[in-house]
Automatic annotation (TrEMBL):
The chain crosses the membrane at residues 63-84. This is CU044_5270 family protein. Keywords: Membrane, Transmembrane, Transmembrane helix. InterPro entries: CU044_5270-like. It comes from the Bacteria. The lineage of its organism: Bacteria, Bacillati, Actinomycetota, Actinomycetes, Streptosporangiales. Residues 40-53 have a biased composition (Basic and acidic residues).
């Protein structure tokens, strides 16, 4: 083994021209070569986007050809040394990687008259104690499918279990004027300085307790920016500036997928895929560090109209957008 280490240390890194003949022999000798795959369906969680961009830079590969390896190359073998990226050194490092991944994804840019169709899974904790302290007795899962008008006008449809509810969104309400719609996101800036000021203004109008307003505003924007990943990338950069953000090296999202997290001082943890740093969802913790709720978005797509689903219940009146 020591001899192999010494041999590897003495091998120079080959360039593309050096490797061309060996690579050609290798490819010619391979059986069952893969054909190119076409078509990518946009999915926020659970599917992978095109390998270009998302996987870009995930590993550094060095090919070495020297001495006793020449015979192996003659029959189609290539020695490969894979050097994986180190784990994020800080929450800022992790968020920077997540921002690069988000920035590589295409924006959907919904029109005001379109419908945003999402499928998500929510997990909520059931506690024995009425104050939701201690460890949960069990976790309750729920699949939530929603059809939301991009501009929050007209009808909204929600499927929970076997029930499909049709709701009319109030055309004029304080809540609608305060909240950001999917269509609104097109006007939000992506440069961090301008975005910081816009978020500050939105947080000031949020009805939550003062110390939670910024966190709630950012989380709402991250959820809505599923249709505009370029904005989500800037939001991650903004969150990296917040005091008290820390890395949680081991997290599980609402779909049961392993991830790595960034926890804010308020107790919300953003969960990312551990290799690509693609955003998976978020989790909320109680003061004892137990997850009390988590959310993961499975798919998102744009529709031109509400689907013809059999509505089982119609909400009377209207609800705030």
């Amino acid at each position: 083994m020591d001899d192999l280490k010494t041999m590897w240390a003495e091998v120079p890194v080959a360039d593309r021209q050096d490797l061309a003949p060996a690579r050609a022999r290798l490819l010619n000798g391979m059986h069952g070569a893969r054909h190119g795959r076409a078509g990518v369906r946009r999915e926020e969680a659970g599917t992978r986007h095109g390998e270009a961009g998302v996987r870009r830079g995930r590993a550094s590969v060095r090919f070495a050809v020297a001495g006793g390896l020449a015979a192996a190359l003659a029959v189609g073998f290539v020695v490969v040394q894979v050097v994986a990226d180190p784990a994020p050194a800080s929450a800022q490092d992790l968020l920077a990687r997540a921002a690069r991944t988000a920035a590589a994804e295409p924006d959907l840019n919904p029109r005001a008259d379109q419908v945003v169709h999402t499928v998500a899974r929510d997990r909520s904790a059931i506690f024995a104690a009425p104050d939701a302290s201690g460890e949960p007795v069990r976790m309750q899962d729920e699949v939530r499918e929603a059809w939301s008008p991009a501009d929050s006008s007209g009808a909204f449809m929600l499927r929970q279990g076997d029930q499909i509810t049709l709701m009319k969104l109030c055309s004029e309400s304080f809540d609608r004027k305060r909240r950001t719609t999917y269509a609104d996101l097109a006007s939000w800036p992506t440069d961090v300085a301008s975005l910081r000021e816009r978020v500050r203004q939105a947080a000031a109008a949020h009805p939550a307790e003062p110390h939670l307003r910024m966190s709630y505003t950012l989380q709402n924007l991250i959820d809505k920016s599923v249709v505009r990943p370029s904005l989500r990338a800037s939001l991650f950069a903004l969150i990296s500036e917040m005091e008290g953000v820390t890395v949680k090296p081991s997290m599980t999202d609402a779909l049961g997928r392993a991830g790595v997290g960034v926890r804010t001082a308020e107790g919300t943890t953003l969960i990312f895929e551990p290799e690509t740093y693609r955003y998976l969802g978020y989790a909320e913790e109680n003061r004892n560090g137990h997850v009390i709720a988590s959310h993961a978005l499975e798919t998102v797509e744009l529709l031109d109209r509400l689907p013809k689903e059999k509505v089982t219940f119609t909400e009377p009146g209207c609800i705030p957008a």
